[in-house]
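Quick start: read one record
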Amino acid sequence: MLKQGLELKQTQKMSPLQIQTIKLIELPIQELEQRVKAELEENPVLDDSPAPEKEDGDDEPRDVSIDEMDADDPIPSYKLRVNNYGKDERPQYNTFSVKESFTQSLMEQLGYRNLSKHDHDVAAFIIGSLDEDGYLRRDLESVVDDLAFRANIESDSEEVARLLSLIQEFEPAGVGARDLRECLLLQLRVQNQTREVQLAQTIIKDYFQEFSNKHFQKIIARLGLTEEEMKGVISRIVKLNPSPGGQIDDSYNDQAQQIVPDFVLDIEDGDMRLSMPRFSIPEIRVNKKYADLLVEAQGSTDRQRKEAATFVKQKLDSAKWFVEALKQRHNTLKSTMEAILEYQRDYFMDGDESHLKPMVLKDIAEKTGFDISTISRVVNSKYIETHFGIFPLKYFFSEGLENQEGEEVSTRELKKALKDCVDAEDKRKPLTDDQLVAEMGKKGYKVARRTIAKYRDQLDIPKARLRKEL
């Protein structure tokens, strides 16, 4: 039997100011500055020209709350300003450093070869098919098909192989390899052919699997080497570059971005001083000519004047929301960072990781009164500069586990202890995960084997068998 009925649901709609604030909170400082510039260009009501000279007794610009910007009072006799500058209001950032393009470098080397137009076009296509590490990850027949369908060039696998061999002579050595084994062999091929280099080539060519699994004793027995000779070969091979394409960043894709901290922490006389000196937003105010336009339109029956007044009012509303959102962003970031500093005071005073307490987003949300989602947005892509380094805010958050005394310790402290155990082990007989559990127990940490395995993976520490050295 079907039942009909009405269900009343209460939904909360976000205001334009709330939406604007959320979007600004998420932005790191470089993107925020670009956002402000874009807003200034798009909204003619906003103006960032130098402020007029202040009258006596008016030392500081008046902060205007959103409530004061009443729609019934269209005459903007006030000025708006985000009053959160630091010592340097207009710092110049060297935000990007652009390096030579990997593809451009190979194409330049290709230009030095005396090739027919057909061979040049095929080789150029192969270069364009290399991945960011410099490898050709596709089989030759697939490249032949792509040449036909995408470039309308007829070729065959023999021709592609010939031109790939040509590219493999280019710098950096190892480029154009189809797998790691070939990449290492290409690099060894161009080195001075000493006995050590020749042995390295033999091992990579004929015993690559054994070498990868660190079965060194098996290789020593097969080739009749001494341990010292094997150590020399290992040292030679580990110095080779497994990612030759990574030596030259692609200037179109991999621009190296410098970090500009949103916060700076100083320790003065045993107290923490938090500042946001690199937070640079130009002074924003209402452009007078648009204010006058709205005044002129008051009470007018002229259609064009009314349309102009409507346009200006919309831009005024947008301007006041944007300026208020900037203020709220600043206050939210500052309150959140102050709560983090208070929670992790011992750590920030000396930078000792063992003083970093377990802390999750909920802890800071409770201290500030903000939603967890707001704290998450603040933490994302933000950095703080301290006297012991520059850190992303995410770094200070970690869950905790109990030690043998029942005290809660951070996962970062546990990872550091685990790394210390691995660093101190005998590399001839690396510790298994079960043995690491025992070693951690000796240090006072109660950790399960599966936790050891998880943390080891997160720290990029291989299994015991792969950590073995001669």
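The beta strands are 46-47, 96-97, 256-257, 263-268, 271-275, 285-286, 383-386, 389-392, 400-402, 408-410.
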